Amino acid sequence: MTINPVLLASGLSRIYQQADTQLSVLEGISLQVNQGEKLAIVGVSGSGKTTLLNLLGGLDDPNSGSVEVCGRDWSIQSTSARAAWRNQHVGFVYQFHHLLGEFSALENVALPCLIGGASVAAARDRASKLLARVGLGERLNHQPAALSGGERQRVAIARALVTEPSVVLMDEPTGNLDPYTAASILDLLDELNTSLGICFVVVTHDPAIAARMDRTVKLENGTLADITHA
Prior knowledge:
single chain; alpha/beta; six-stranded mixed sheet
């Protein structure tokens, strides 16, 4: 049976120029993520995990190598085409939720649908159903300032999932949460992964989070190595 990867990175390198010095962060990284897979990327602070995540999501470009999402290479797309493909296929969740403070939870979650061309009614309907699914059906009209940290992160997760993307990229998604709330977020991700078949790529320094994933890779000295779960 042929496996069509959702995410395929080949030979990625990323170099930053600092004054007269070149800093090599990533060196020839290759990675494949298939439909429904949950992957953890671990590594010490400053190892390049966020840089790698930005390359995978097409937010930054490598110095060499390529990234394909659902068979389409980021590098051959125009800025507008890349944005449209990202809106359709890639969701992002960050350690800091980056919600729009003047918008309600419902408006924050509906925004990607509106950007993708959905009607206001359709976007609000999808957003309200997903917020109910993540346990916030009674908080639709609350702005971020009126929500707890865990609730804000649930809104951010709903926003990332509302277009039912092929893959969600998560950068330390539970880093600012207490252990109980973090566990509930991970339970939610497991349920959504099972029910929707969405891939999750989670950057984390927490071994407990990595253990919840199907597979873990470690980023060290600019390269990736597989870690076998016990």
